[in-house]
């Protein structure tokens, strides 16, 4: 969420990301054992290259490395490893593949694997992100190791690909260390993994499936969600506000634990940002929204969607918030302090011109989360923390500005 105080640091940022494996091709164990990881020779990129946006949770750092893949048999694989990292996201500065060759970026066990052909065609290969500089970023791989492999039958010693950078994800302790926390958990933290409510609150659980974790520019962490029936998603303007930032983003659906309190998030499905349609005017204390689309939209349609309320809410309305506070697997805020105690409610439906207020628990990374009422319509877009008045931008005002760009009939 947007911090109300200045950050203590400008930091690198990255995302621990579970992904949908597209081409499950793992390197033989004997070959993997013979390749020395590149990460011990990596260096932290200059501070000016690290991600730093006020109010966006930082979850990792950018590293520089000198690696390449060649057609020589002993140079067809590179291992990028940073011990303890929650994810690795690899950057290719160049790709010089011959016809029939391709590169995979995979986890060591092959459960995650992304294939990149010479033409970088998302229709035939895997998704990727760009940052306006030469080359491209592969989708992130969960864990501390990415195995990069050249596939094809051509022989020779010419370089086929060059790796120059990677993001490595912080662990939980580092995320806490490198993010200044505004007090947005009001008294006891009553949030729980979404799966904890699958039986007791099945509709809230189901609506939460449309909510995703958002990684910006390889580093910043927020929450985003599908709005309406077409390829449209909403998050906060303070998370991103330019087409370049959208193109550099990953939106990850179904990143949630399989068991209540189990710390075992599923693989999830990630897509890259496509088109920025509209951002709000004014500062981050006002409506603070960004409307965008994603590539490979069909792969996320099955997670459902949410719809905006078109009239103002009222004080006392029951509410709940699904989101990725602290970059964690998806959690639901349904109760204010204790499970099965008082429900979260709107404390002030007219806190100011743009916002409603509530004491429902949130934290950094919840920026962009939907605030839903008991009828499961979105009544606000969460973006500001500070108990007892956590705040969300009024959804009906957002609807008035983007109605022509979405299909809100549901």
From TrEMBL:
<feature type="signal peptide">
    <location>
        <begin position="1"/>
        <end position="32"/>
    </location>
</feature>
<dbReference type="InterPro" id="IPR043504">
    <property type="entry name" value="Peptidase_S1_PA_chymotrypsin"/>
</dbReference>
<dbReference type="Pfam" id="PF13365">
    <property type="entry name" value="Trypsin_2"/>
</dbReference>
<protein>
    <submittedName>
        <fullName>Trypsin-like peptidase domain-containing protein</fullName>
    </submittedName>
</protein>
<keyword id="KW-0732">Signal</keyword>
<dbReference type="InterPro" id="IPR009003">
    <property type="entry name" value="Peptidase_S1_PA"/>
</dbReference>
């Amino acid at each position: 969420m947007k911090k109300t105080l200045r950050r203590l640091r400008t930091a690198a940022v990255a995302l621990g990301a579970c992904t949908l494996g597209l081409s499950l091709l793992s390197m033989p164990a004997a070959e993997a054992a013979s390749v020395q990881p590149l990460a011990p020779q990596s260096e932290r990129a200059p501070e000016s290259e690290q991600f730093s946006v006020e109010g966006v949770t930082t979850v990792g750092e950018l590293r520089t490395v000198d690696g390449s893949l060649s057609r020589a048999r002993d140079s067809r694989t590179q291992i990028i490893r940073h011990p303890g990292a929650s994810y690795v996201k690899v950057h290719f500065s160049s790709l010089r593949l011959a016809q029939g060759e391709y590169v995979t970026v995979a986890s060591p066990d092959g459960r995650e694997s992304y294939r990149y052909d010479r033409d970088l065609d998302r229709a035939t290969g895997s998704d990727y992100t760009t940052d306006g500089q030469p080359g491209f970023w592969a989708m992130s791989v969960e864990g501390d190791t990415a195995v990069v492999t050249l596939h094809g039958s051509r022989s020779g010693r010419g370089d086929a690909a060059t790796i120059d950078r990677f993001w490595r994800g912080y662990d939980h302790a580092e995320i806490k260390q490198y993010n200044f926390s505004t007090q947005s958990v009001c008294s006891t933290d009553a949030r729980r993994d979404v799966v904890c409510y699958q039986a007791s609150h099945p509709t809230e659980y189901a609506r939460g499936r449309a909510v995703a974790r958002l990684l910006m520019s390889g580093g910043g962490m927020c929450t985003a969600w599908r709005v309406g029936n077409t390829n449209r998603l909403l998050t906060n303007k303070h998370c991103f506000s330019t087409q370049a930032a959208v193109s550099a983003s990953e939106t990850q659906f179904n990143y949630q634990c399989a068991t209540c309190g189990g710390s075992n998030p599923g693989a999830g499905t990630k897509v890259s940002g496509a088109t920025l349609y509209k951002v709000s005017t004014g500062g981050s204390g006002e409506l603070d929204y960004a409307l965008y689309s994603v590539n490979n939209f069909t792969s996320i349609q099955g997670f459902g969607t949410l719809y905006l309320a078109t009239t103002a809410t009222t004080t006392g309305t029951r509410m709940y918030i699904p989101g990725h506070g602290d970059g964690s697997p998806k959690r639901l805020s349904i109760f204010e302090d204790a499970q099965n105690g008082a429900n979260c409610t709107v404390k002030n439906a007219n806190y100011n011109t743009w916002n409603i207020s509530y004491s429902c628990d949130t934290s950094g990374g919840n920026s962009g989360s939907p605030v839903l009422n008991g009828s499961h319509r979105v009544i606000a877009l969460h973006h500001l923390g500070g108990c007892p008045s956590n705040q969300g931008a009024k959804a009906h005002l957002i609807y008035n500005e983007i109605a022509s760009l979405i299909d809100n009939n549901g």
